[in-house]
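Below is a filled-in request sheet from our internal design queue. Each sheet records the structural input a requester submitted and the sequence that came back. We keep these sheets so that new team members can see what a complete request looks like end to end.

REQUESTER: design group, bay 2
PRIORITY: normal
MODE: inverse folding
CHAIN LENGTH: 345
BACKBONE (tokenized):
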């Protein structure tokens, strides 16, 4: 396929994508706004800080996409640099903040008695510190966009010039950009997604092999009270409370694992295609297939933003009864709360 045919196909797909992307972005903005207003009512939820930051980053990304599809004129190199930098930083921030959310839950479950506000455990229990560190990390790792991106002019089939944001080939070779693309894919997507799933699997394992024993008052009065002499931490609850706690715990674990899987499923296809294009130059060797695949997978990628509405409903309890950490006993919302704890001597 020559350059003229390539440009015609690219313009045709872009015109078809315009209304689809526009409608998807507007619907996503409405759902994100609804998710935010629902979340405001549940400020005491453990997940409030993380979900609020994800919502803000989603809005920024959607507005940049909206600006990009509505602006067909020349943007200028500075606008291209800022547009890529902000959108890439927001994407990196979102992926890592999901990891922070699940990591905090992991450490609360594995180390429920670590109450210090200092050191590593204090850092992992502080939502503000995790958000600030994630924001700094995203800005630092995505600062390459401010150097290697420029505006490139292209001639359409009707002899009109348009500006497109592309990499600056005068600064770095193709091999260098391939290495950069692989590094960005690992840092921004692969590592946080894999660690997020690993954290959820670890939580499942911890629940099945917990050193904590939850007992009802009936069991304590029975012959099973010998458990009190085992070198474990014993939690005393009513039988009904134990059943409710176990049900809530298993529901929360399934929800978190489901959300992590959905995030990977919606993000991985599009960015895998972009990474393969950087390495194997798919847009030049398999132009037609690449353009169609890019359009389809980009739509799948866009669908992730609307999912935040469903995530907020899954992560926080209905009717404002959000699960929260009690004073001086920062347990996870998936950990049973008890009146009395005994540790054997």
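RETURNED SEQUENCE:
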């Amino acid at each position: 396929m020559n350059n003229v045919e390539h440009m015609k196909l690219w313009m045709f797909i872009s015109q078809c994508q315009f209304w689809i992307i526009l409608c998807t972005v507007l619907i996503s903005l409405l759902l994100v706004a609804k998710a935010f207003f629902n979340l405001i009512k549940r400020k005491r939820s453990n997940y409030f800080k993380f979900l609020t930051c994800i919502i803000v980053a989603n809005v920024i990304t959607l507005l940049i996409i909206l600006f990009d599809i509505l602006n067909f004129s020349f943007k200028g190199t500075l606008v291209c640099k800022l547009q890529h930098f902000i959108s890439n930083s927001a994407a990196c921030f979102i992926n890592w903040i999901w990891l922070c959310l699940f990591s905090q839950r992991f450490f609360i479950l594995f180390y429920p008695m670590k109450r210090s506000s200092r050191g590593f455990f204090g850092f992992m229990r502080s939502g503000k510190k995790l958000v600030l560190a994630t924001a700094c990390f995203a800005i630092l790792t995505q600062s390459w966009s401010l150097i290697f991106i420029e505006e490139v002019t292209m001639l359409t089939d009707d002899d009109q010039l348009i500006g497109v944001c592309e990499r600056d080939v005068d600064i770095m070779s193709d091999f260098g950009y391939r290495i950069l693309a692989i590094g960005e894919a690992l840092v921004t997507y692969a590592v946080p997604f894999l660690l997020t799933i690993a954290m959820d699997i670890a939580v499942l394992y911890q629940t099945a092999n917990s050193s904590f024993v939850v007992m009802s008052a009936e069991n304590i009065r029975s012959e099973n009270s010998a458990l009190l002499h085992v070198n474990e931490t014993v939690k005393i609850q009513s039988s009904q409370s134990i059943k409710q706690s176990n049900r809530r715990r298993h529901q929360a674990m399934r929800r978190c694992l489901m959300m992590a899987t959905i995030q990977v499923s919606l993000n991985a296809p599009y960015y895998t295609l972009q990474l393969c294009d950087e390495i194997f130059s798919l847009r030049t060797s398999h132009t037609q297939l690449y353009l169609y695949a890019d359009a389809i997978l980009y739509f799948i990628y866009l669908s992730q933003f609307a999912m935040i509405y469903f995530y907020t409903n899954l992560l926080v309890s209905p009717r404002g009864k959000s699960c929260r950490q009690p004073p001086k006993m920062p347990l996870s919302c998936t950990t049973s709360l008890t009146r009395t704890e005994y540790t054997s001597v």
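SHEET NOTES:
- The CA atoms of residues 104 and 334 lie 12 Å apart.
- The beta strands are 149-155, 161-167, 212-215, 233-236, 340-343.
FILED BY: M.R.
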